[in-house]
């Protein structure tokens, strides 16, 4: 896309709840911003509604997704399109909002059909912005700030602040590692240890996230942890979130019922990312000999596999590493 | 004190709940650490108990403060002493744990009575460590890391991690400014806006705390905000804490009952620091022309004085400053 020469054109791939929310938000911006075409094509995985009507037709008639986002107007410039190829053919900016298991198949179908220079972004989690609750997000980028800023402009609204950071690895590692810390926070909840302890655990978790990310990828920047993908997402995940919730139940059961069992019972098919991420992190720590440096991350895994009791999450006396080597801090412990 | 030549000797000034907790914790360490005398003198503001016995005698007989910390042994090396001058005469490390309004008077009494080179520390808030819940704290210092580390050693236990940072201003500003952010968090609670919004507000608050501290005092370090005095205390204060609680009530009343009124009703004489700190910060912002740079800090004050409605706490659309000037971040908004 010759940014600056022609207008940007956006297509949204997906029309479930979050796809509809994203289309609505984006369309409110493309209608205002001169560098974007007003129209936002939203690809709809076609369904026949109980009324006998096609979902895509229903959306275009009511300007509302009566099945996945009822009661909220999408904006006149959102056009539902059940034909994938047609939906994307004029677009140079694609927004993926399908369940992740469909992405590979969709990409195969799109191969060779896109305009040269087309960019894509993936929105992998839902947010409470359909009802315009204040929220925020971070976009990571590599070198090309202009591209990142254009994407940020597309998403920013008065109730949804989007920032960009030149640190893809940092943004991704924050998104992954926070789920391990949420397990730790959930254990503290299940042990009824109160807010002071929980805050301490979240802080130590953030510290280990930062140190681990920097060891893995030296380009990771401190600032990233002050962005919404860092401290804000960590707080959200440790206050709500399913990793926290299942870990709380695990601790309340004294570790006697496994995470697998609780997950199956509590999440109805959804998966806990924190447990599998803790395992992967542990493998890296063991392989590189860093275990002693990351007591919280290590302990979470050892609790998850039943090697340590849930109460170990607050016992760091035997291994209190000096992370100052990594973080440049003067921390005493 | 000739550290390394003679043993350090600790006196605790105060024997209320938190004074007793501190004495117990410190005594468990002085008993183990070779660089400290075992004995910890605890100055007791003498009282006659309902039994007719003196409080200090009761403490020394039962090794327990039956009035302010019943049911918990202080450790055999804690000696209660009602004579202030006698309690401190051999000490070179003083720990102040009295209510703050007594400090000035006590200091006047101590003037000229202390050994040369005596150091003092003040513990201004209580923590949940009497029952050995996991918690942490940060000690700020200027230049002399050895002194700071000695103090940290005195307080560190397996359930109480103490770190030191060479950043007195940063530690103090964190402690003050977090109360303003807690007001913002409480308003979000009162507006029932959910965890995503609350986390976003806490994150923006942390960002403004950091930027404001660095503008006020250029020696303030980023690392300080990753210590317990930064992100962990902020989380604790925004989850519990009286600033949060009264601000929640303020928002639930639609701003129609003043903070003064709610404070009198809810806190029974305790004072809200957040409201007065917000006012002081606002004066600095106005005086230096920085108001536009700190929408959250400014808005909290304007809401407190009734100039803006509580809902303004999530409306930053009209003033979204680029704090990257200050923080070096690439934030878009």
UniProtKB/TrEMBL annotation, chains A, B:
<dbReference type="GO" id="GO:0005975">
    <property type="term" value="P:carbohydrate metabolic process"/>
</dbReference>
<keyword id="KW-0520">NAD</keyword>
<feature type="active site" description="Proton acceptor">
    <location>
        <position position="178"/>
    </location>
</feature>
<feature type="binding site">
    <location>
        <position position="242"/>
    </location>
    <ligand>
        <name>NAD(+)</name>
    </ligand>
</feature>
<dbReference type="InterPro" id="IPR011128">
    <property type="entry name" value="G3P_DH_NAD-dep_N"/>
</dbReference>
<dbReference type="GO" id="GO:0046168">
    <property type="term" value="P:glycerol-3-phosphate catabolic process"/>
</dbReference>
<comment type="similarity">
    <text>Belongs to the NAD-dependent glycerol-3-phosphate dehydrogenase family.</text>
</comment>
<feature type="binding site">
    <location>
        <position position="102"/>
    </location>
    <ligand>
        <name>NAD(+)</name>
    </ligand>
</feature>
<dbReference type="GO" id="GO:0141152">
    <property type="term" value="F:glycerol-3-phosphate dehydrogenase (NAD+) activity"/>
</dbReference>
<feature type="binding site">
    <location>
        <position position="125"/>
    </location>
    <ligand>
        <name>substrate</name>
    </ligand>
</feature>
<dbReference type="InterPro" id="IPR036291">
    <property type="entry name" value="NAD(P)-bd_dom_sf"/>
</dbReference>
<feature type="binding site">
    <location>
        <begin position="14"/>
        <end position="19"/>
    </location>
    <ligand>
        <name>NAD(+)</name>
    </ligand>
</feature>
<feature type="binding site">
    <location>
        <position position="271"/>
    </location>
    <ligand>
        <name>NAD(+)</name>
    </ligand>
</feature>
<dbReference type="InterPro" id="IPR006168">
    <property type="entry name" value="G3P_DH_NAD-dep"/>
</dbReference>
<protein>
    <recommendedName>
        <fullName>Glycerol-3-phosphate dehydrogenase [NAD(+)]</fullName>
        <ecNumber>1.1.1.8</ecNumber>
    </recommendedName>
</protein>
<feature type="binding site">
    <location>
        <position position="45"/>
    </location>
    <ligand>
        <name>NAD(+)</name>
    </ligand>
</feature>
<dbReference type="InterPro" id="IPR013328">
    <property type="entry name" value="6PGD_dom2"/>
</dbReference>
<dbReference type="GO" id="GO:0005829">
    <property type="term" value="C:cytosol"/>
</dbReference>
<dbReference type="Pfam" id="PF01210">
    <property type="entry name" value="NAD_Gly3P_dh_N"/>
</dbReference>
<keyword id="KW-0560">Oxidoreductase</keyword>
<dbReference type="InterPro" id="IPR008927">
    <property type="entry name" value="6-PGluconate_DH-like_C_sf"/>
</dbReference>
<dbReference type="InterPro" id="IPR006109">
    <property type="entry name" value="G3P_DH_NAD-dep_C"/>
</dbReference>
<feature type="domain" description="Glycerol-3-phosphate dehydrogenase NAD-dependent C-terminal">
    <location>
        <begin position="167"/>
        <end position="315"/>
    </location>
</feature>
<dbReference type="GO" id="GO:0051287">
    <property type="term" value="F:NAD binding"/>
</dbReference>
<feature type="binding site">
    <location>
        <position position="273"/>
    </location>
    <ligand>
        <name>NAD(+)</name>
    </ligand>
</feature>
<feature type="domain" description="Glycerol-3-phosphate dehydrogenase NAD-dependent N-terminal">
    <location>
        <begin position="10"/>
        <end position="135"/>
    </location>
</feature>
<feature type="binding site">
    <location>
        <begin position="242"/>
        <end position="243"/>
    </location>
    <ligand>
        <name>substrate</name>
    </ligand>
</feature>
<dbReference type="Pfam" id="PF07479">
    <property type="entry name" value="NAD_Gly3P_dh_C"/>
</dbReference>
